[in-house]
Amino acid sequence: MIKTDILIIGAGPTGLFAVFEAGLLKLKCHLIDPLPQPGGQLAELYPKKPIYDIPGFPEILAGDLVNNLMEQIKPFQPGFTLNERAETIDRLDDGTFVVTTNRGTQHHAPIVAIAGGLGSFEPRKPQLDNLDFYEENGVEYFIRQPEQFRNKKVIIAGGGDSALDWAIYLSDMAAELTLVHRRNEFRGALDSVEKVQELKRLGKIDLITPAEITQLHGRDRLEAVTITTFDQNNPATQTLKETDFFIPLFGLTPKLGPIADWGLEIEKNAIKVDNTLDYQTNIPGIYAIGDINTYPGKLKLILCGFHEATLMCQSAYQRIFPDKKYVLKYTTVGGIDGFDGSRKEAPKAVVKAIE
Ligand SMILES: Cc1cc2nc3c(=O)[nH]c(=O)nc-3n(C[C@H](O)[C@H](O)[C@H](O)COP(=O)(O)OP(=O)(O)OC[C@H]3O[C@@H](n4cnc5c(N)ncnc54)[C@H](O)[C@@H]3O)c2cc1C
Question: Mind listing the pLDDT tens digit of every residue in the chain (355 residues)?
Fold first, then answer.
């Protein structure tokens, strides 16, 4: 059982910044996220896009903002349960919570902060017979350990940034890399499209367009796929291609998922909170911050998530230590005491006569 002060569900920017604010109050955090890396939408949907409305940053790439947040929270040593989705919540007699993931990992905390964004991202799946039989048996929707594809035959399908980026990355290690897309045009960063073109010319990527994977084959695991190639003037042709892996990268759709069944007040697919006070839900001790919550005037923006995370932590502190009075200290004055023993502080003023 993982124990912490604030259990944060969702490692997007809101959840990450909550770790920092909690750390200033000497509260420890642990985060759960079904994605393989922290950063939420920024890391998964638009890491290379510039953001222009983060205070103090006239322009910052989404991926860099995530890296900065990770650097900022490092002294507070947050724990992470990645690749797992928070599935159930149980309220114990003493008012604390146990949250269990889809893989059975249990987390115990007096405070739960749901920072689940648009919900958990589920991969868009192709409509293929027997697809579930081959899932994690040759069909993969996420590339968590690229090494598993070394010296293997790999087919990637998709026409966006992830399909292009992973095709480029894996073309270096796979025995054979095929990229299949149902259109001739790709929608991605220009340099990625050009790189794939170059790798095709060098014979490192077998590009098949416009085409789709239409059947999966294999007795115990995936052994081959049928590729149907379209041609405006001729009938579609079908080719059987041997492969070890088929990776459809058709994007992700967010779903509120299991959180919808936790007894929380839900309005239009978001969790209702008290924005006049602390972003607490209808269940005392459970907060909802960032894109996942709703209240009058709500804006789904990163900076709003940061603000909500800050107020949530203050309220959480009062719940955990009802008898202690917290006095707000500026970081410029109080500095930062990391849980790793590190200390950051502004240089102290000295009292010295000038002769
Ligand atoms: C293309 C694009 C461009 C954008 N540009 C801007 C911009 O310029 N400025 C701006 O302010 N905002 C922008 N946004 C919006 C911004 O990305 C969101 O406001 C922000 O990501 C919200 O952060 P969050 O941490 O609340 O949620 P998210 O970033 O969505 O993170 C939530 C995390 O929770 C996880 N999660 C969900 N359910 C569970 C569960 N059951 N268990 C465990 N984990 C779970 C998810 O996997 C996800 O990682 C943009 C969004 C998009 C899509």
Answer: 999 999 999 999 999 999 999 999 999 999 999 888 999 999 988 888 899 999 999 999 999 999 999 999 999 999 999 999 999 999 999 999 999 999 999 999 999 999 999 887 778 999 999 999 999 899 999 887 889 999 999 999 999 988 999 999 999 999 999 999 999 999 888 899 999 999 999 999 999 999 999 999 999 999 999 999 998 777 789 999 999 999 999 988 877 889 999 999 999 889 999 998 999 999 999 999 999 999 999 999 999 999 999 999 999 999 999 999 888 889 998 899 999 999 998 887 778 888 8
**Residues contacting residue 216 through CB under 8 Å, at least 6 positions apart:** 128, 129, 130, 131, 134, 138, 139, 222, 225, 246
Whole-model pTM: value is: 0.78
Question: Looking at the DSSP assignment, which residues form a beta bridge with residue 121?
Answer: 254
Distance 139 CA to ligand 1 centre (A): 26
Q: Which residues sit with their C-beta closer than 6 Å to ligand 1?
A: 9-15, 32-35, 40-42, 45-46, 51, 53, 85-86, 115-121, 257-259, 290-291, 300-303, 305
Residue type, 123: P
The CA 181 to ligand 1 mean position distance, Å, reads 27
Task: Calculate how far, in angstroms, residue 302's C-alpha sits from the geometric centre of ligand 1.
Answer: 8
CA nearest to 105, candidates 88, 122, 123: 88
